[in-house]
Specification:
Blueprint (H helix, E strand, L loop, with lengths): L2 H12 L1 H8 L1 H20 L7 H26 L7 H18 L4 H25 L4 H20 L9 H8 L7 E2 L2 E2 H27 L7 H23 L6 H19 L1 H11 L1 H6 L4 H27 L10 H11 L11 H20 L4 H25 L1
Antiparallel strand pairs: 1-2
Helix pairs in contact: 1-2, 3-16, 4-10, 4-11, 4-14, 4-15, 4-16, 5-6, 5-7, 5-14, 6-7, 6-14, 8-14, 9-10, 11-12, 12-14, 15-16, 15-17
Length: about 400
């Protein structure tokens, strides 16, 4: 051990909190950035941002971006990118409209067909990327153009709607209540409390497991503060929503997807292999990972989640239009990079991508409330994305 390494190791032991913060700067920085942005817009909008109606709208407006960000995170972690997701959203919305509105199909078989078509689109693109090594940028750029054209052809250049009332509830509906008490949605409060306690319980169990292996490096103070904030934030937000109409159906869908994919990425073999694939594809292949099949599956998954987002967006808009999904891919990719994913692959978390999406969503919502022009909104979002990437490169070079 050289003198520099030895002095660093000694400093880490004498200042464990500083060392932990240094290693997890991006994670805590993201949370602080979200809190700061929400606090700033809460002040600048004279309290409108955190009103129950606006919180609900914030969830509904960003639901499809968050759903796609979950899939895009895995694609980017694997070392690729998908530029076609916005066009796929528009195409799937158009397909759902044609089936349900023009041909009177029931929404259940329509949903199944749309998800299968989305997965097939991902498979078609993933095949060329995985097995023929064509750069994902080129393949998905072609896909973006192809599905924009197919959406125009499918809809014949016109809007189709409205959708059946039952299908609209996917995006505009709310969970039923067990009892109404003075205008409070009781089931929302119960679910918020249950979810927050469950998350804290799982965090506590995970810390116990790490301590048994002598692996728990998070200072106890940080652990308590983090879980206290989780309890406070979830219960406060669910309380706000309980004073309006309760939890939106799409929020339940988002929560399920985030939970499933967080578990998949962090706790399963396939998740670890995706990170290994993005970190060093050659090393992963030599270790026995079937890299081609794994790349193929990440794009199949992305196509299916883009189809889910397409259905959610169509249900919210209550019509399918040829311009649906325009530039969605930019917001999704920006959310993932702002959320801590690395451009070179192998780094990123599902929760980070979700926080990144909410940062973008809060900025969009807050600037709209303040009547900031769309031109300046684009400039500000571009600068935030650039700052996030510069921060990532700076940390990488420093380490």
């Amino acid at each position: 051990m050289n003198q520099e390494t030895q002095s660093t190791s000694t400093a880490d032991k004498t200042n464990p909190m500083g060392h932990y913060l240094k290693r997890h700067l991006r994670e805590y920085g993201l949370l602080l950035a979200l809190v700061f942005i929400m606090g700033s817009f809460q002040i600048m909008t004279n309290g409108i941002l955190m009103k129950p109606l606006n919180i609900t709208n914030l969830v509904l407006q960003n639901s499809y971006i968050i759903i796609m960000a979950v899939g895009m995170l895995l694609v980017i972690v694997a070392g690729h990118i998908d530029l076609s997701v916005g066009s796929v959203v528009g195409f799937i919305g158009g397909l759902a409209a044609v089936m349900m509105v023009e041909y009177d199909f029931h929404y259940v078989p329509t949903t199944i067909v749309c998800l299968m078509v989305g997965a097939a689109i991902g498979a078609a693109q993933g095949y060329w990327i995985a097995y023929y090594k064509i750069p994902s940028f080129i393949v998905t750029l072609a896909g973006m153009l192809v599905f924009k054209g197919l959406t125009l052809a499918l809809l014949d250049g016109k809007s189709i709607g409205p959708f059946p009332k039952t299908f609209q509830k996917l995006s505009s509906g709310f969970i039923p209540d067990i009892a109404a008490i003075d205008g409070i949605h009781l089931l929302t409060l119960v679910l918020g409390a249950a979810v927050s306690l469950l998350l804290v319980y799982f965090n506590f169990r995970a810390r116990q497991a790490q301590q048994k292996l002598d692996y728990a490096d998070e200072p106890y103070v940080f652990f308590v503060l983090k879980n206290g904030l989780i309890l406070l934030a979830i219960n406060y937000l669910t309380y706000l929503m309980s004073t309006y109409k309760g939890l939106p159906n799409v929020l339940i869908l988002m929560a399920l997807l985030i939970s499933i994919y967080s578990f998949l990425a962090a706790r399963t073999t396939i998740g670890r292999r995706i990170y290994a694939l993005g970190g060093n594809e050659k090393a992963a292949k030599l270790s026995g990972v079937k890299t081609e099949r794994l790349t193929f599956l990440t794009f199949v998954n992305m196509g299916m989640l883009a189809a889910v987002a397409g259905l959610v967006f169509a249900a919210r808009l209550n019509t399918a239009t040829p311009k649906a999904g325009l530039a969605f891919e930019l917001d999704v990719i920006a959310a993932v990079f702002i959320g801590g994913a690395s451009m070179s692959g192998g780094v990123g978390k599902i929760v980070g991508a979700v926080i990144g999406a909410f940062i973008m969503g809060v900025m969009n919502n807050g600037m709209s409330i303040m009547s900031v022009g769309i031109d300046y909104q684009q400039v500000i979002k571009g600068l935030v994305l650039l700052a996030a990437v510069i921060f990532d490169v700076y940390n990488k070079n420093k380490s």
